[in-house]
TrEMBL record:
It comes from Malus baccata. Residues 1-23 form the signal peptide. The keyword Transcription does not apply. It holds the Pfam family Glyco_hydro_3. GO terms for biological process: arabinan catabolic process; xylan catabolic process. Residues 727-797 form the Fibronectin type III-like domain. Keywords: Glycosidase, Hydrolase, Signal. InterPro entries: BXL (IPR044993), Fn3-like (IPR026891), GH (IPR017853), Glyco_hydro_3_C (IPR002772), Glyco_hydro_3_C_sf (IPR036881), Glyco_hydro_3_N (IPR001764), Glyco_hydro_3_N_sf (IPR036962), Ig-like_fold (IPR013783). GO terms for molecular function: alpha-L-arabinofuranosidase activity; xylan 1,4-beta-xylosidase activity. The keyword Hydrolase applies. This is Fibronectin type III-like domain-containing protein.
Length: 808
């Protein structure tokens, strides 16, 4: 300890530059505010800033653009004292005035538009709002990669513009890429659904939209690749219980098998890091198999940095470290004050484990003592700080970024962005039922409309959580009003619908209207962060309200459901008085317009459900806290997600209708692949339910292969109906028959394609055998299995076998 203190003192005296009190005053008042203080700060190494501060920029290596970012970050960190270093380790980094290093607020959010949830971003008279896109679950339903990326680009343009005006940061802790394992999860709205591959593809596209600077995507040195803004994939890992019947995320220990970890929970993060080249990952609140994720060297250092080679920093979820002490009581009892102090100090060991930045104050408050007590090497802090500063350098925080300099007020809430938000909602909306072509409504025949239900005049409900202040709202009521004379009735006192007294006026409206549109569903009072659902039904009197209105309606009845998770609406599916059903997720600031465009046929819906809609009884069969995805026969648990659940559903994953029909014709499919093993590659046994089916060489370890085996095919999609429209082709692979405990099918690719009525388009697909035909075994080996795999298009519209022959 004495030696540590000695080092500390030496370090301090070497580093103590003398700066005049005048310069310090200037620093405190202006130049240390940094980006998100509303000041006119442009970039750290702006020479005029330094001259204002009485410093000579040319003497600071970290401002020398001839040096590499690594060297510059090292120079900066080497100049700091230990006390100064620890002040930079929290989300509100304090800066180092004597070095001209300003404060920086790391916490901003941009899940589906620039949000003011984090302290790094705010709205005021100058920038009163930003474009609020649909929530992620609806945007995912579009199954359109270029849409996902384009939204990321629009959001980062607005973020960068707001940064230029001192209203926002450069580091955004979005997207949320946790797989929706259970339909009760309150945060489904934030996510891209239940399929790990789809979630991963969404993640890498959105991240690239936020981060990539055109023309530099494939830079050879990924550690110095420029960033438009920095994105963060969260919450790592196996995080999907918020608060279910008293079990909350701050205490929950997710018991997860290595198989499910590799196959489901880590997969989107791996794709986010490797395919998206994201510059940050956030660890979660929960424990995994007993260890808080932010304190797990295997999950952080070994996997994210080691196996996946992250170019960026790892941050904790906010106050995760406090959660470890007070929630998980990690590493012992904290009742004793003394023990608590020691423990708290011990948390700086997390730096050693790979967590670079603490959203909170634990690192800043306790790390200095940790070093003095010999609990963490100072070099680990240096390494974390370097990870942080390299990201800021890539963002232009030190040197400025001429590419984005001209972005300003005109780029936030621009016409194009508002249009893109509307387009995203239109593309995502899913047509679930359409008897006798009720939709689209024929506007000429419809003069009077009844627009009823708790969401009929939805505004804030349409933008969900992690929203900002939107540019404007177009509610359903507002949008439908431009199509005829509208009678509006709420029918319910809110989504809770605890009172049936408002049903009658809604029935009266429906009785006299040429068409009735019912807006029902959920909102953040039912499904939200820190709030999981207890059932899959519509709340309160909503079901009764819908049935009663439908029964007396004069014209056709259209039911529009706003929700993130699936709702058991079997009653509506079966009710002949309800002619059509649309799912509109939470459709963003222009949601009403998008729904009206679909209802009146200005847009032909093509969205597909990114989640299985289970029947209500499903949740009575298994607790939300059982993490396993495969069925557990001994406990009577059904499987989870379309990959492992084979029971009946209200609507399956991938479901969605159109106003037209499409026919598929398969072109030039390759039907077999031969793999000859070398001496160092071995056949691996795998378990078969029935050994009769087991081939002589059942499988080979994917890590042992070069994985250059590809197969491909073309699909001609013909629009055989009368309306132009977009079709989502979803491609699944099914493993050979007989393999024990594997998925029934898995998505390996998808493509949304627009086809004019009477015309056809051919889409070509190429797949890598290792990525598309592999299985993860119970022991977490990733294996390529020989035998007859099946490739299936959509809901088994077309399927064909592909024979994989592995020979020693
Ligand atoms: C920023 O610059 C503008 C225009 O040059 C000026 O009006 C404003 O007062 C400056 N703000 C601060 C915080 O220095
Ligand atoms: C970067 O590489 C990807 C994948 O190889 C390619 O599709 C893309 O066009 C490349 N971008 C540039 C700017 O070279
Ligand atoms: C951290 O330090 C600040 C400033 O000294 C203090 O206000 C705060 O209470 C401390 N928080 C904790 C959790 O120790
Ligand atoms: C619809 O909602 C908006 C925004 O909350 C509100 O201003 C308006 O009065 C509502 N319209 C009706 C008819 O209740
Ligand atoms: C239902 O609403 C009516 C009208 O607003 C009110 O008179 C009644 O007390 C409410 N009933 C309940 C159970 O809240
Ligand atoms: C659909 O149309 C057919 C033929 O007009 C009719 O017999 C049938 O009852 C209709 N179905 C519903 C549910 O309205
Ligand atoms: C579906 O699950 C049941 C119960 O676990 C099982 O008996 C049946 O074989 C499964 N069917 C398929 C097609 O996997
Ligand atoms: C579409 O495909 C189905 C099934 O293959 C076939 O019965 C039908 O005739 C086709 N329709 C058109 C218009 O090609
Ligand atoms: C996919 O999204 C892009 C970007 O919004 C859009 O231009 C395109 O039309 C969409 N594709 C289809 C087939 O809907």
């Amino acid at each position: 300890m004495a030696i540590n203190i000695f080092n500390f003192l030496v370090c301090f005296s070497i580093a103590s530059f003398v700066i005049s009190s005048n310069a310090r005053r200037v620093l405190d008042s202006k130049n240390v505010d940094g980006n998100n203080g509303g000041s006119n700060f442009t970039h750290v190494c702006d020479p005029s800033r330094f001259s204002d501060l009485g410093l000579d920029v040319s003497t600071f290596g970290f401002c020398d653009s001839k040096l590499s970012y690594d060297d510059r970050a090292k120079d900066l960190v080497d100049r700091m004292t230990l006390a100064e270093k620890v002040r930079q380790l929290g989300n509100s980094a304090k800066g180092v005035p004597r070095l001209g290093l300003p404060k920086y607020e790391w916490w901003s959010e941009a899940l589906h538009g620039v949000s003011n949830v984090g302290p790094g971003t705010y709205f005021d008279d100058l920038i009163p709002g930003a474009t609020s896109f649909p929530t992620v679950i609806l945007t995912t339903a579009a199954f359109n990669e270029s849409l996902w990326k384009q939204i990321g680009q629009a959001v980062s343009t607005e973020a960068r513009a707001m940064y230029n005006l001192g209203r926002a940061g450069l580091t955004y802790w979005s997207p949320n890429v946790n797989v929706v394992r259970d339909p009760r999860w309150g945060r489904a709205t934030e996510t891209p659904g239940e399929d790990p591959y789809v979630v991963g593809v969404y993640a890498s596209n959105y991240v690239r939209g936020l981060q990539d600077v055109e023309g530099t995507e494939n830079a050879t040195d990924l550690n110095s690749r420029p960033l438009k803004v920095s994105s963060c994939c969260k919450h790592y890992a196996a995080y999907d219980v918020d608060n279910w019947l008293g079990v909350d995320r701050y205490h929950f220990d997710a018991r997860v098998t290595e198989q499910d970890m590799a196959e489901t929970f880590l997969k989107p993060f791996e794709m986010c890091v490797k395919d998206g080249d994201v510059s940050s990952v956030m660890c979660s609140y929960n424990r995994v198999n007993g260890i808080p994720t932010c304190a797990d060297p295997k999950l952080l250092k070994e996997t994210i940095r080691g196996d996946w080679d992250l170019h960026g920093y790892i941050v904790s979820d906010c106050d995760s470290l406090e959660v470890m002490v007070n929630g998980h009581k990690w590493l012992g009892d904290t009742k004793e004050d003394a023990a608590a102090q020691a423990l708290k100090a011990g948390y700086s060991m997390l730096i050693t484990l790979g967590m670079d930045l603490d959203c909170g104050v634990y690192y800043t408050n306790f790390t200095q003592n940790s070093v003095r007590q010999g609990k963490v090497k100072e070099v680990e802090i240096d390494r974390s700080l370097k990870n942080l500063y390299v990201v800021l350098m890539r963002l232009g925080f030190f040197d400025g970024n001429p590419t984005f300099k001209s972005l300003g007020k005109k780029d936030v809430c621009s016409k194009q962005h508002i249009e893109l938000a509307t387009e995203a909602a239109r593309e995502g909306i899913v047509l679930l039922k359409n008897v006798n072509e009720t939709l689209p409504l024929k506007s000429k025949k419809i003069k009077k409309l009844a627009v009823v239900g708790p969401h009929a005049n939805a505004t804030a409900a349409m933008i969900g959580n992690y929203a900002g202040i939107p540019c404007q709202f177009t509610s359903p009521l507002g949008a439908f009003s431009s199509y005829g004379e509208v009678k509006y009735e709420m029918g319910c006192d809110g989504v809770a619908c605890a009172n049936d007294s408002l049903i009658f006026p809604a029935m009266k409206a429906a009785k006299h209207a040429d068409a009735t549109i019912i807006f029902a569903g959920l909102d953040l009072s039912v499904e939200a962060e820190s709030l999981d659902r207890v059932d899959l039904l519509l709340p309160g009197y909503q079901t009764q309200f819908i049935n009663q209105v439908a029964q007396v309606s004069k014209g056709p009845v259209i039911l529009v459901i706003m929700s993130a998770g699936g709702v058991d609406i079997s009653f509506a599916k079966q009710n002949d008085n309800i002619n059509a059903i649309l799912w509109a997720g939470y459709p963003g600031e222009e949601g009403g317009r998008a729904i009206a465009d679909v209802a009146f046929g200005h847009y032909n819906p093509g969205g597909r459900l990114p989640l299985t809609w289970y029947e209500a009884g499903y949740v009575d069969m298994l607790p939300m806290t059982s993490m396993k995805l495969r069925p557990i026969d001994s406990l009577g648990y059904p499987g989870r997600t379309y990959k492992f659940y084979n029971g009946s559903t209200v609507y399956p994953f991938g479901y969605g209708l159109s106003y037209t029909q499409f026919n598929y014709t398969l072109r030039s499919a390759r039907k077999s692949l031969d793999i000859k093993l070398r001496k160092s590659q071995h056949c691996r046994d795998i378990e078969y339910k029935d050994n009769e089916y087991k081939p002589p060489c059942p499988s080979v370890l994917i890590d042992d292969l070069e994985c250059n085996h590809e197969f491909g095919f073309g699909i001609e999609v013909k629009n055989v109906g009368k309306k132009d429209g977009s079709e989502v082709i979803i491609i699944y692979s099914k493993p050979p028959i007989g393999i024990a405990a594997t998925h029934t099918k898995q998505v390996i690719g998808f493509k949304r394609v627009f086809v004019k009525a009477g015309k056809s388009e051919t889409v070509n697909f190429v797949f890598n055998a290792c990525k598309s035909l592999g299985v993860v075994n119970y022991n977490a080996y990733n294996l390529l299995t020989s035998g007859r795999h099946t490739i299936m298009l959509g809901d088994d519209v077309v399927s064909f076998p592909i024979q994989l022959n592995i020979k020693e």
